[in-house]
Amino acid sequence: MAVFHDLQKKKESASSFFFNFVPLKRKKQYIHTQKMPEISLRGAIMPASPIRKLVPLANAAKARGVKVYHLNIGQPDLPTPPNALEALRHIDRKVLEYSPSEGLLSLREKLVTYYRRFNINVDVNDIIITSGGSEAVLFAFMACLDPGDEIIVPEPAYANYMAFAISAGATIKTIPSSIETGFSLPPISEFEKLITDRTKGILICNPNNPTGYLYTQKEMEQLRDIVKKHNLFLFSDEVYREFCYTGAPYISAFHLSGIENQVVLVDSFSKRYSECGIRVGALVTKHEQLKKNVIKFCQARLSPPLLGQIVAEASISTPPEYMLDIYNEYVERRKFLVDSINKIPGCYTPIPMGAFYTVAKLPVDDADLFCQWCLSEFEYEGQTVFMAPASGFYTTPGLGRNEVRLAYVLKKDDLAAAMKILEKALEAYPGRTL
Amino acid sequence: MAVFHDLQKKKESASSFFFNFVPLKRKKQYIHTQKMPEISLRGAIMPASPIRKLVPLANAAKARGVKVYHLNIGQPDLPTPPNALEALRHIDRKVLEYSPSEGLLSLREKLVTYYRRFNINVDVNDIIITSGGSEAVLFAFMACLDPGDEIIVPEPAYANYMAFAISAGATIKTIPSSIETGFSLPPISEFEKLITDRTKGILICNPNNPTGYLYTQKEMEQLRDIVKKHNLFLFSDEVYREFCYTGAPYISAFHLSGIENQVVLVDSFSKRYSECGIRVGALVTKHEQLKKNVIKFCQARLSPPLLGQIVAEASISTPPEYMLDIYNEYVERRKFLVDSINKIPGCYTPIPMGAFYTVAKLPVDDADLFCQWCLSEFEYEGQTVFMAPASGFYTTPGLGRNEVRLAYVLKKDDLAAAMKILEKALEAYPGRTL
Questions:
Q1: Which of residues 97-156 of A touch B (CB under 8 A)?
Q2: What domain range is A394 assigned to?
């Protein structure tokens, strides 16, 4: 199986490699050495989730009695809105039936109103409910991209975009943004350079996961112009729109005039109401042919989760006071985490302007090894910290090697403990570079 | 967009067409005639769900005040077990968090016990929880099949297998089974003829959707032999295992010795507990490499629905008396529906031995047109019937043209009304052939 391991390393050229390789007859080389049918190359080249791949090490640490602080995953510790939980307790259906493939009408209607608050003017028929934002990305790619098609994404980027692109057989071409420039949008000329006649779209996440960057009006207009010029899709993941922490406005892709039919908005209830487990998201588009296409994928999987949709619908009515409390909590956590990191010798993170993540540079040889080491070989007063190595958010080899993504989804006391542990870990780590 | 419509008609050769066509540069031909980026060919060639594509006509009929009996979809009217609904009402979590990507451990442990009742001996690590059986099929294909790979499926077959194969870029080759032989397994020599060096597996659904056929011990052994001989995967969709209505035993793919590592079992809670809306299923395999591969797809979509898993776990403890009531209800409905159909002049259906569907031959020119006509142009005493045209369950052109799939998921009074309407519709339909 050595070829699979080599392939793993080749993730920089995974998709193109994949499609050049597939037409060869690969079967014969394995058939005599193993008694099992072989798995797909697609799966073999798919990178493991940088957010979840170290989970077994964390579980082992917990089994040893070590307390693990989870900064690796965007799972807020904040309560799901009580009105949402109340809706759950009051479900009086006798049969938990399929919902429509495109989602409950009542939920889609409520979303129309929700979006209007953000000056996003869409019709109920523009909204298709998905099983989490994840499925919205998958269906967007499946319905827009064919094998060999390309999309351009600034990196670091949410790692699972790559997984969904591989699922669709498409190629993600990345343009590095840098911690030195606070992860702002790379020059638009860099996008132009990558455009070929297989380029179908540009993908952004705004506010950004993992960097917390919030694209400016000017940057969004640059994106609009290039998307318009080359007739591309603009895939815009805006699940963190409620978490913008500066006076700068949140610019939705749907705010950009002249490309209304090119926007594919990805949304999710998970983060804004701290209900990641309900698995409800949405794909929003005004492109009529695309809607029909996405609906076919929706019908194939029958329906999104009914119970989650009931919770999601109730969540939209969460009182503004509750949302403000949550917001203020993140503002505090953000300040605390960013200040704490920047106080540790050799560490640096720019101020994230939105979402609830930040990418930090650490004084280590290799953040992948450091994160593993924290879970498997280190503890401080019976505790350790679980971080996501940033390398998994880049596809350009070597980038993010000394960076981690940290989620400030834990309460301040826990963040304080985690930062103390990080500081101690950096002092003890054999591969420290300071 | 004429090419898309032509493509739709070409579903017989959809996948191969797709992959021959993709490398061409298609973009230029559209770019000047429309202002929008074009959708994927993958989506364009994907057939609409035969179960759901007529939904707009049904909705229009309802809007006209016509009562519509749904025989088109496997959505039982039977109540979800009270203990499952009770579990829902007693969720006292404050945060509806992500569950593990592979599903809740407690649910997987309970499934081990559940399968043991059916003499299916699997370990907790062999079970991966999915968002419905649908996702189990999708992930099985994604993780086993590369573009151009082939699987062999007896037809008629559950229509969405084709959609998931197109998603994975794989080709389904079908072997017709016939209503004349009660939809028994086609001769194994027919399978042998289709095997190439791109064949990766055989897919069965047992008990079968849409035919209700239950594969015999002898047929299952034939499948085992060919799967073993050619080192193939045996994808086995067994979601209807609790609904077998004859003395003949249910033979799981996992009962077949010598191919344990080749079996990929697809399961779902939807049908057996009448909880289609919870979206919880499972993929079960002992193939270690495949498990790792599937987990990567699971991690990419983060987690299956939490709330559904809680309901599913409680459902496994449904008292046997309750399950027996459900079973007896289906036995009665089956007898009623089959007898009723066979009494109508020109109609015929073989006795389904399991699941809750049957495929019936009707005296009509074209069942697609007939089903549309029933929804849009016919009513009897303010009522009509929604059936699934069987053509969508075949890929061989022309097959199933005068057949429909009927689900006996409604109570007997409703089935009686629906059969009366069917009889009247057949008398009035301009394209009747009797």
A1: 97-101, 131-132, 134-135, 138, 142-149
A2: 55-79+321-428
Pick B261's closest partner by Cβ from A35, A261, A299: A35
**Which of residues A274, A291, A316 is at a domain's end?**
A316
Closest CA to A75 of A360, A327, A273, A216: A273
Cβ pair A289:B25 closer than 8 A: no
Tell whether A338 is covered by a domain: yes
Whether A96 and A154 share a structural domain: yes
**C-alpha angle A203/A209/A214, rounded to 5°?**
80
Whether A289 and chain B come into contact, CB under 8 Å, resolves to: yes
Q: Is residue B251 less than 8 Å (CB to CB) from chain A?
A: no
What is the distance, to the nearest Å, from the Cα of residue B170 to the centroid of all Cα atoms in its chain? Answer: 18
Give the C-alpha separation, B157 to B399, whole Å: 12
Nearest to A43 among B18, B94, B293 (CB): B293
* Average pLDDT over chain B, rounded to an integer: 91
Of B266, B292, B316, the one marking the end of a domain is: B316
Is B365 domain-assigned? yes
B329 and B303 in a common domain: no
In a domain, A47, yes or no: no
d(CA B102, CA B389): 36
Please check whether residue A24 lies inside any domain of the structure.
Answer: yes
Query: pLDDT tens digit string along B230-244?
Result: 999 999 999 999 999
Please give the radius of gyration of chain A, using alpha carbons only, rounded to the nearest integer: 22
Q: Inform me whether the pLDDT recorded for B219 exceeds 60.
A: yes
DSSP string covering A206-262, please? Answer: SS-TTT-----HHHHHHHHHHHHHTT-EEEEE-TTTT-B-SSSPP--GGGSTT-GGG
Give SS3 for A88: helix
Is the peptide bond preceding residue B207 cis, with omega within 30 degrees of 0? yes
Q: How many domains, chain B?
A: 3
CATH number of the domain residue A59 falls in: 3.90.1150.10
- Least confident window among A45-59, A83-97, A112-126: A45-59
Tens digit of pLDDT for each residue in A103-150? Answer: 999 999 999 999 999 999 999 999 999 999 999 999 999 999 999 999
Single-letter residue type at A192: E
| pLDDT given for residue A14 in this prediction | 40
Q: Do B98 and A39 touch (CB under 8 A)?
A: no
- Residue B284, pLDDT > 60, answer yes
Verify that A75 and A86 share a domain, yes or no: no
**Candidates A42, A97, A143; nearest CB to B43:** A143
Residues B158 and B274 in one domain: yes
Yes or no, beta carbons of B307 and A277 under 8 Å apart? yes
Please give the residue of chain B at the shortest CA–CA distance from A80.
B95
Q: Which chain B residues contact residue A277 at CB under 8 A?
A: 96-99, 303, 305-307
Same domain for B253 and B355, yes or no, is no
Structure tokens at B87: 């579990």
B195 in the same domain as B158: yes
> Are the beta carbons of A191 and A175 closer than 8 angstroms?
yes
Q: Residue A203 pLDDT > 80, yes or no?
A: yes
pTM above 0.80, yes or no: yes
Contact of A275 with chain B, judged by CB distance below 8 Å, is answered with yes
A328 and A289 in one domain? no
- Asked if residue B327 and residue B308 are part of one domain, the reply reads no
